[in-house]
């Protein structure tokens, strides 16, 4: 995409990463399936071997970079999954004897990462996301890992404040931006060294591919992350990369509807007596609302809340008709799950993570309210 004129989110999403037009060629070139490329002479070209580079990745990485930091020089590296992207930052930047700070309330696979870091002689400290608590354990750290909003609790921390404190003592900062996506916040603009995401979720939004990415401004850091990808071979398939790029065109449209639906669901849940612990950064009553309003551009499409017990939560999920009982989030079809079933999150048995999709708002809210009534043993009249 050429030109320096300002663009809205939708325009940028639709055009991001597209090559210059060529007569009779498709707007978005199809996926390139290649293990090797013609390579006479010295291997100095951009595409040499399929584990190192692929033209389909190039288009996608440019597109994500344009969304992460519009108008700026940024490098993006795509991966086979979000966990591959997370691992690439941590294991490319940390060495034995280093200290890393992780959120204690972050994604449930982080404890597995913690065990592996410690096995490599890396000290790990943890603190909750809320209240910028990670500041209390930051001294002497090499890397600070932030997840905001946190998954699944939806706490928000002050990225600028944490970045300033970390950089003042020479620490790097990586932000897991999976829940917000670049439509919701841009960590690089807030000072972070790395913006990381599982693109399996909101970025691609259809629940049909696994993908992840790392974006950063520093070319040397990006090279270290890319080298890690080569070492472990955590590369995306060309079809997945092409599907992801195709999906980015609707990112702004999907995000706007999902965020509006999430807020509508949260408002509908708020007066229910059986609902406790309701969290959504866009609710004025939410503890994170003021900070999220300053820091985020959109509040996200996920709502969390607690029903009285496991049985009540399972009855609610069973009664939903427009919502899939699935473990991911960020898709065009709403999904929800009793998060405690996995055992990896410190949440009550009745804790629900609800991901709002792109359904009509009135239909989705009606489905949620009806399911709540059925779960509580109260029947609502069906609409003719």
From TrEMBL:
Which PANTHER family does the record associate with it?
CYSTATHIONINE GAMMA-LYASE-RELATED, TRANS-SULFURATION ENZYME FAMILY MEMBER
What are the entry keywords?
Lyase, Pyridoxal phosphate
MF-aspect GO terms: lyase activity
Q: SUPFAM superfamilies from the xrefs?
A: PLP-dependent transferases (SSF53383)
EC annotation? 4.4.1.1
Q: Which organism is it from?
A: Streptomyces amakusaensis
On whether Lyase is a keyword of this UniProt record, the answer is yes
Q: What residue spans carry the region label Disordered?
A: 1-21
This protein's cofactor list reads: pyridoxal 5'-phosphate
Instruction: Identify the Pfam families for this entry.
Output: Cys_Met_Meta_PP
Its family remark reads: Belongs to the trans-sulfuration enzymes family.
**Which protein are we looking at?**
Cystathionine gamma-lyase
Q: What class of enzyme is it?
A: lyase
């Amino acid at each position: 995409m050429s030109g320096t004129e300002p663009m809205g989110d939708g325009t940028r999403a639709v055009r991001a990463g597209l090559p210059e037009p060529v007569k009779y060629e498709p707007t978005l070139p199809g996926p390139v399936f290649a293990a090797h490329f013609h390579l006479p002479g010295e291997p100095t070209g951009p595409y040499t071997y399929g584990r190192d580079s692929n033209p389909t990745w190039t288009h996608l990485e440019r597109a994500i970079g344009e969304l992460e930091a519009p108008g700026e020089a940024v490098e993006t590296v795509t991966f086979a999954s979000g966990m591959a992207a997370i691992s690439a930052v941590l294991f490319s930047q940390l060495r034995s004897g280093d200290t890393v700070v992780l959120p204690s309330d972050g994604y449930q696979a982080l404890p597995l990462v913690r065990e592996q870091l410690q096995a490599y002689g890396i000290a790990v400290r943890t603190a909750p996301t809320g209240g910028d608590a990670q500041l209390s354990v930051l001294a002497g750290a090499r890397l600070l890992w932030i997840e905001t909003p946190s998954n699944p609790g939806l706490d928000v921390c002050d990225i600028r404040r944490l970045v300033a404190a970390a950089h003042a003592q020479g620490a790097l900062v990586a932000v897991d931006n999976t829940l917000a996506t670049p439509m919701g916040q841009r960590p690089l603009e807030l000072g972070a060294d790395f913006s990381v995401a599982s693109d399996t979720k909101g970025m691609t939004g259809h629940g049909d591919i696994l993908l992840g990415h790392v974006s950063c401004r520093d070319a040397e850091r990006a090279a270290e992350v890319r080298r890690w990808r080569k070492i472990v071979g955590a590369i995306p398939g060309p079809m997945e990369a092409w599907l992801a790029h195709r999906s980015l065109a609707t990112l702004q449209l999907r995000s706007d509807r999902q965020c509006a639906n999430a807020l509508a669901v949260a408002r509908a849940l708020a007066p229910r007596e059986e609902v406790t612990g309701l969290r959504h950064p866009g609710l004025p009553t939410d503890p994170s609302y003021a900070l999220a309003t300053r820091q985020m551009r959109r509040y996200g499409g996920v709502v969390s809340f607690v029903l009285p017990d496991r049985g009540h939560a399972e009855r609610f999920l069973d009664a939903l008709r427009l919502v899939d009982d699935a473990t991911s989030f960020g898709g065009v079809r709403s999904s929800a799950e009793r998060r405690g079933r996995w055992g990896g999150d410190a949440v009550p048995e009745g804790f629900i993570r609800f991901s709002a999709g792109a359904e009509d708002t009135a239909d989705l809210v009606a489905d949620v309210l009806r399911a709540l009534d059925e779960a509580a043993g109260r029947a609502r009249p069906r609409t003719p």
